[in-house]
Amino acid sequence: MIDRIIYIKNVFIVVFIFMFFFSCGDSQSEDSTGSENCNELIMVDTSRGLCTEQLSYSNQVIFSISGDLRKVTANNIPTHNVGLFGNVSGALNPNAITAQNSSYDIDLTPSKANTKTQLLNNGPVYSFGILLNGVEVDPVAAEPWPHTKPVTNNHNWSWNLEATMVNIGLDCNTAHVQPNGKYHYHGVPSLYLESLSHSSSEMLHVGWAADGYPIYYMYGYSSMNDSTSMVKALASSYQMKAGERQGEGDSAPCGEYTGVYSADYEYIDGLGDLDECNGREGVTPEFPEGTYYYVITNEYPGVPRCFVGTPSSDFKIGPG
Fold this sequence. Notes:
By secondary structure, the chain is of the alpha+beta class. It is about 10% helix and about 20% strand. The protein is built from two helices and 19 strands.
C-alpha cells in the first residue's frame, strides 16, 4: 500500500514538473516571438522609378548677393532627366512637374544659433535648402503613423516614414513632385551629381542650406582644418537601432527596427565624422579660412535633418 502511494506521488510530481516547464516554454516562446503578432504595415522598399523623361521646361536659376543676403530665384526645374509624373498611366505620382516662380533670401554671413532647429516638429517645418541647379532638397515626408489621410491631431509624428526607405513614388534622383508641381529631392540627387563630373579626390560644393551655410556632397578633408590632407568620404554618426520598437501597433508601430521610420535611427556622438545635423567645422575650397558646412551622405540621414543656424522663412513649409 505504501509503495502504491509513493508511486502515485512520484507520478504526480513528474506530471506537475512536465506541465510547469511546458507552460514556461510556451510563455518564453510568446515573449521571444512577440513580433510575429505585430501587424507590420510598411515594408522596406528602396525601389526608384526610371528617369526616362526630358522636360520641355528649361532650367532657370540665378544666385546673386545684395547686402547681407544671398538671393536666389529659380523655377525649380532640373537640367537632368526625371521620372514619369502626372495624371498618366504608369506615373510615379499624379502631380505633373511645372515651372515655379520661387525666390529665397539666405543669410550671407550665417552664425550658429543657441539651439538647433529641427526639420520635423509635429510635421515638416522646413525644406533643408537649395542646390546650385535651383532645385530644393526636402528630406522629410509628411507620412506620420498610422499613415492614413487626412492627417489629424491623432497622428503620431514621432513615427514618420523615412522617404528614401519606402515607396512614395520617387524617381532615380530620389525626387518627386508636390501638388503644386514643384519637383524636389528627398535624398541623393544622382543624375545631378553625375552631371558635375566630380572626382572623389576633391570636395564638391552642391548648394546652400536655408540657414546660409554651404552644402557639400559626401567628401571632406581627412584633417578638417588642413586643405592639403587627403580627401575622404565623410561618415554620418547615425546608426539603425537594434531590437524592436516599443509600440503596440495602435498608437505607435511595433516590429523590428528596419529603417522605414526616421525614428528607427539614433545619433551616436563621435560614431562618424559628422555631428547631429550631418555637418562639421573645417576648411573647404570655397572657404579656405574655415566654416561650418553640411554634408549630404549616401547613408542615413542623407540630407541633414536640422540646422545649426537660423533658417530663412522662405524655406518654411506650411502656414506661417
